[in-house]
Write a sequence for this structure.
Protein backbone atom coordinates (compact mmCIF):
# COMPACT_ATOMS: atom_id res chain seq x y z
CA UNK A 1 0.00 0.00 0.00
CA UNK A 2 1.35 3.40 -0.94
CA UNK A 3 1.88 5.60 2.12
CA UNK A 4 3.40 8.96 3.00
CA UNK A 5 4.73 9.79 6.48
CA UNK A 6 4.76 13.31 7.87
CA UNK A 7 4.76 14.98 11.29
CA UNK A 8 3.38 18.10 12.91
CA UNK A 9 3.41 19.50 16.43
CA UNK A 10 0.46 20.20 18.68
CA UNK A 11 0.79 21.23 22.34
CA UNK A 12 4.48 20.25 22.39
CA UNK A 13 3.72 16.72 21.16
CA UNK A 14 4.86 15.34 17.81
CA UNK A 15 2.02 13.72 15.91
CA UNK A 16 2.86 11.22 13.20
CA UNK A 17 0.57 11.15 10.17
CA UNK A 18 0.28 8.47 7.52
CA UNK A 19 -1.59 9.33 4.34
CA UNK A 20 -2.45 6.19 2.42
CA UNK A 21 -4.06 5.02 -0.79
CA UNK A 22 -6.39 2.10 0.02
CA UNK A 23 -6.68 1.30 -3.69
CA UNK A 24 -3.10 0.02 -3.55
CA UNK A 25 -3.70 -2.18 -0.50
CA UNK A 26 -2.98 -5.89 -0.84
CA UNK A 27 -3.38 -8.70 1.67
CA UNK A 28 0.39 -9.20 1.57
CA UNK A 29 0.84 -5.73 3.10
CA UNK A 30 -0.58 -7.04 6.37
CA UNK A 31 2.27 -9.52 6.78
CA UNK A 32 4.33 -6.60 8.15
CA UNK A 33 2.14 -6.80 11.26
CA UNK A 34 3.02 -9.52 13.79
CA UNK A 35 -0.70 -9.78 14.64
CA UNK A 36 -1.92 -9.91 11.03
CA UNK A 37 -3.82 -13.16 11.68
CA UNK A 38 -6.20 -11.25 13.99
CA UNK A 39 -7.39 -9.23 10.99
CA UNK A 40 -8.23 -12.22 8.83
CA UNK A 41 -11.98 -11.56 8.92
CA UNK A 42 -11.84 -7.75 8.74
CA UNK A 43 -13.01 -5.90 5.64
CA UNK A 44 -10.58 -4.42 3.14
CA UNK A 45 -11.20 -0.84 4.34
CA UNK A 46 -10.65 -1.80 7.97
CA UNK A 47 -7.43 -3.63 7.12
CA UNK A 48 -6.01 -0.63 5.23
CA UNK A 49 -6.93 1.76 8.07
CA UNK A 50 -5.46 -0.54 10.69
CA UNK A 51 -2.21 -0.91 8.76
CA UNK A 52 -1.88 2.86 8.33
CA UNK A 53 -2.58 3.44 12.02
CA UNK A 54 0.01 0.89 13.13
CA UNK A 55 2.55 2.38 10.73
CA UNK A 56 1.94 5.81 12.29
CA UNK A 57 2.32 4.23 15.74
CA UNK A 58 5.57 2.55 14.68
CA UNK A 59 7.00 5.95 13.71
CA UNK A 60 5.76 7.50 16.96
CA UNK A 61 7.48 4.80 19.02
CA UNK A 62 10.68 5.16 17.01
CA UNK A 63 10.80 8.73 18.24
CA UNK A 64 11.33 7.18 21.70
CA UNK A 65 13.94 4.72 20.37
CA UNK A 66 11.49 1.83 20.45
CA UNK A 67 11.11 -0.39 17.38
CA UNK A 68 7.81 -2.11 18.02
CA UNK A 69 4.37 -2.38 16.47
CA UNK A 70 1.50 -2.19 19.01
CA UNK A 71 -0.54 -5.38 19.09
CA UNK A 72 -4.28 -5.75 19.64
CA UNK A 73 -5.74 -6.15 23.14
CA UNK A 74 -8.80 -8.08 24.23
CA UNK A 75 -10.95 -4.97 23.74
CA UNK A 76 -9.36 -4.18 20.36
CA UNK A 77 -7.18 -1.50 21.97
CA UNK A 78 -3.55 -0.94 20.90
CA UNK A 79 -1.04 -2.57 23.25
CA UNK A 80 1.75 -0.10 24.04
CA UNK A 81 5.15 -0.93 25.56
CA UNK A 82 5.43 -0.81 29.35
CA UNK A 83 5.88 2.73 30.60
CA UNK A 84 4.30 4.31 27.52
CA UNK A 85 0.85 5.44 26.47
CA UNK A 86 -0.32 6.10 22.97
CA UNK A 87 -3.29 6.87 20.79
CA UNK A 88 -4.24 6.21 17.16
CA UNK A 89 -6.94 7.80 15.02
CA UNK A 90 -8.14 7.29 11.44
CA UNK A 91 -10.17 9.53 9.17
CA UNK A 92 -10.64 9.08 5.44
CA UNK A 93 -7.24 8.19 4.00
CA UNK A 94 -5.19 9.52 6.92
CA UNK A 95 -4.09 8.03 10.23
CA UNK A 96 -2.51 9.74 13.24
CA UNK A 97 -0.55 8.39 16.19
CA UNK A 98 1.12 9.92 19.24
CA UNK A 99 3.08 8.39 22.11
CA UNK A 100 3.78 9.74 25.59
CA UNK A 101 4.83 8.58 29.04
CA UNK A 102 1.53 9.90 30.41
CA UNK A 103 -2.05 9.12 29.31
CA UNK A 104 -2.73 10.78 25.98
CA UNK A 105 -5.51 10.77 23.43
CA UNK A 106 -5.74 12.01 19.85
CA UNK A 107 -8.63 12.16 17.41
CA UNK A 108 -8.91 13.16 13.76
CA UNK A 109 -12.29 14.08 12.27
CA UNK A 110 -13.70 15.67 9.14
CA UNK A 111 -15.64 18.81 10.03
CA UNK A 112 -19.38 18.22 10.17
CA UNK A 113 -21.67 19.79 7.60
CA UNK A 114 -24.65 21.93 8.63
CA UNK A 115 -26.97 19.07 7.70
CA UNK A 116 -25.05 16.55 9.79
CA UNK A 117 -25.09 18.91 12.77
CA UNK A 118 -28.86 18.94 12.69
CA UNK A 119 -28.94 15.15 12.70
CA UNK A 120 -26.43 14.42 15.47
CA UNK A 121 -26.24 17.44 17.78
CA UNK A 122 -28.65 16.00 20.35
CA UNK A 123 -26.66 12.79 20.67
CA UNK A 124 -23.32 14.57 21.20
CA UNK A 125 -24.03 17.53 23.50
CA UNK A 126 -26.66 18.72 25.95
CA UNK A 127 -28.48 22.04 25.75
CA UNK A 128 -26.03 23.47 28.29
CA UNK A 129 -23.07 22.31 26.22
CA UNK A 130 -24.60 23.86 23.10
CA UNK A 131 -24.57 27.19 24.94
CA UNK A 132 -20.82 26.79 25.51
CA UNK A 133 -20.28 25.99 21.83
CA UNK A 134 -22.35 28.99 20.71
CA UNK A 135 -20.48 31.31 23.10
CA UNK A 136 -17.12 30.28 21.61
CA UNK A 137 -17.65 32.43 18.53
CA UNK A 138 -16.64 29.53 16.29
CA UNK A 139 -18.90 28.36 13.45
CA UNK A 140 -21.28 25.85 14.99
CA UNK A 141 -20.32 22.94 12.68
CA UNK A 142 -16.68 23.40 13.70
CA UNK A 143 -17.56 23.75 17.38
CA UNK A 144 -19.72 20.61 17.37
CA UNK A 145 -17.04 18.63 15.53
CA UNK A 146 -14.53 19.72 18.17
CA UNK A 147 -16.86 18.62 20.97
CA UNK A 148 -17.28 15.21 19.31
CA UNK A 149 -13.56 14.85 18.66
CA UNK A 150 -12.49 16.02 22.12
CA UNK A 151 -14.73 13.46 23.80
CA UNK A 152 -13.26 10.75 21.58
CA UNK A 153 -9.73 11.85 22.52
CA UNK A 154 -10.52 11.84 26.23
CA UNK A 155 -12.14 8.40 26.04
CA UNK A 156 -9.07 7.02 24.25
CA UNK A 157 -6.68 8.54 26.78
CA UNK A 158 -8.44 6.97 29.75
CA UNK A 159 -10.03 3.87 28.24
CA UNK A 160 -8.06 1.77 30.73
CA UNK A 161 -10.08 3.41 33.55
CA UNK A 162 -13.51 3.24 31.89
CA UNK A 163 -16.19 1.13 33.55
CA UNK A 164 -17.78 0.25 30.22
CA UNK A 165 -18.33 1.66 26.75
CA UNK A 166 -18.67 5.43 27.30
CA UNK A 167 -21.39 7.48 25.67
CA UNK A 168 -21.13 11.15 24.83
CA UNK A 169 -22.92 12.03 28.07
CA UNK A 170 -19.87 10.64 29.89
CA UNK A 171 -18.00 13.90 29.23
CA UNK A 172 -19.27 17.47 29.30
CA UNK A 173 -17.84 20.44 27.40
CA UNK A 174 -16.90 23.16 29.90
CA UNK A 175 -15.01 25.69 27.77
CA UNK A 176 -14.09 26.18 24.12
CA UNK A 177 -11.92 28.83 22.50
CA UNK A 178 -9.71 29.21 19.45
CA UNK A 179 -6.90 27.10 20.92
CA UNK A 180 -8.36 24.60 23.36
CA UNK A 181 -11.42 22.81 24.67
CA UNK A 182 -11.92 21.49 28.20
CA UNK A 183 -14.08 18.60 29.33
CA UNK A 184 -15.35 17.30 32.63
CA UNK A 185 -15.82 13.55 32.96
CA UNK A 186 -18.81 12.05 34.75
CA UNK A 187 -19.17 8.96 36.90
CA UNK A 188 -20.76 7.11 33.98
CA UNK A 189 -17.30 7.05 32.42
CA UNK A 190 -15.35 6.24 35.56
CA UNK A 191 -16.20 6.89 39.23
CA UNK A 192 -12.48 7.47 39.82
CA UNK A 193 -12.44 10.30 37.26
CA UNK A 194 -15.85 11.82 38.03
CA UNK A 195 -15.58 15.61 38.20
CA UNK A 196 -12.07 15.63 36.77
CA UNK A 197 -11.43 18.21 34.08
CA UNK A 198 -9.08 17.83 31.14
CA UNK A 199 -7.83 20.36 28.65
CA UNK A 200 -7.31 19.45 25.01
CA UNK A 201 -5.52 21.40 22.32
CA UNK A 202 -7.10 21.52 18.89
CA UNK A 203 -6.03 22.34 15.38
CA UNK A 204 -7.82 22.68 12.05
CA UNK A 205 -6.03 21.19 9.05
CA UNK A 206 -7.98 21.76 5.86
CA UNK A 207 -11.36 20.05 6.21
CA UNK A 208 -10.19 18.08 9.25
CA UNK A 209 -9.78 18.87 12.93
CA UNK A 210 -7.37 17.29 15.40
CA UNK A 211 -7.88 17.23 19.17
CA UNK A 212 -5.23 16.17 21.66
CA UNK A 213 -5.61 15.63 25.39
CA UNK A 214 -2.67 17.44 26.92
CA UNK A 215 -3.03 18.01 30.64
CA UNK A 216 -5.20 17.62 33.73
CA UNK A 217 -7.02 20.58 35.22
CA UNK A 218 -8.13 20.87 38.82
CA UNK A 219 -11.53 19.36 39.71
CA UNK A 220 -14.37 21.87 39.58
Amino acid sequence: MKTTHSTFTLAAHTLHQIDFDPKNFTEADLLWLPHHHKLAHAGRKRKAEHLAGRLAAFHALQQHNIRKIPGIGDNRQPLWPDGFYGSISHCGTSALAVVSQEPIGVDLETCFSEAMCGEVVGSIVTTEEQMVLNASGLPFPLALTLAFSAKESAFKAFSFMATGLPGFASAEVVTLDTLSISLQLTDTFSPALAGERFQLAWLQRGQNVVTLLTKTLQPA
Summary: The chain has a mean pLDDT of 93. The two ends are 47 Å apart (CA to CA).
